[in-house]
Structure prediction request, 279 residues.
Amino acid sequence: MSEENNEKPIFGRKIFFIAPPPNIFPFVTNKLRELEYEIYVIPDYKKAREILRNNPDSICFCNLDDQKLSVKSWLNYIKSYHDDDELKSTIMGVLSSRSRKNDRENFLMQPNLGAGYIVTSVGNTELVDSIKNILDVNGAKGRRQYVRANTANNPMAQIVCEKNNQMFTMQLQDISSVGFACRANNEDAPLFVKNSLLKNFTLRLEKKQITASAVIFATKPGDDFSILVMLFLPNQPAMNKPAIQEFVANTLEQTTIGDTQHIEDDQTDYEHYGEEENA
Prediction:
């Protein structure tokens, strides 16, 4: 691992999986998201370079079992990231159901393979633990404990609550599994007193609605509106946390990856990458 990659960022790192094995990865990605890692799936390696170019300092795992590229091509694919100034900060890793000594040695010699060679032909729980250990070594979480999504421009992300016999509908600014911020009119904000409880309100998270309770942690007055910061009470219904984590993951997926059909395919011939230089 390079000295640069050893520096753990304050806000953590985005984690990308390129075409992960479909038989195990719904479980793995969901479990990692439950553990508050910021996970993304890129379905095709041909779309990955452009996405990762816009997300420097990320961690990226390539699935060697994806037959779109040979083992040699995957080796060259990973090398190409180190050769690209805009992509060399990406910490690469490898997933494979095989554990051939020669393959492992060749990949582990790559200077940017800081996320290692992970064998997937183990139990799902063991696989999650292996990936989690790699993520922690590379500062995937940084100092943050919870993944948060910005929802300020999503009109379908709202809180509906009652206060002093009045109904209020407020726009969510951001949300995580432990709390959220919302926007209140300045004339209404004094009704929401710091450290007071707000019980049995409704969160509208696009197509889902959940009932929750929270404590008002802080109020931040502004020129046009005030921001209310709320922390969920610990005794929430069991379904709330996974519902919020799913919404956060979907929101981040849309803003970070979006519709990959609009991303130009990578046309590089990785089977022969670098041969001209070595000739």
Remarks:
- The two ends are 29 Å apart (CA to CA).
- Residues 240-256 form the longest helix (17 residues).
- The mean pLDDT is 92.
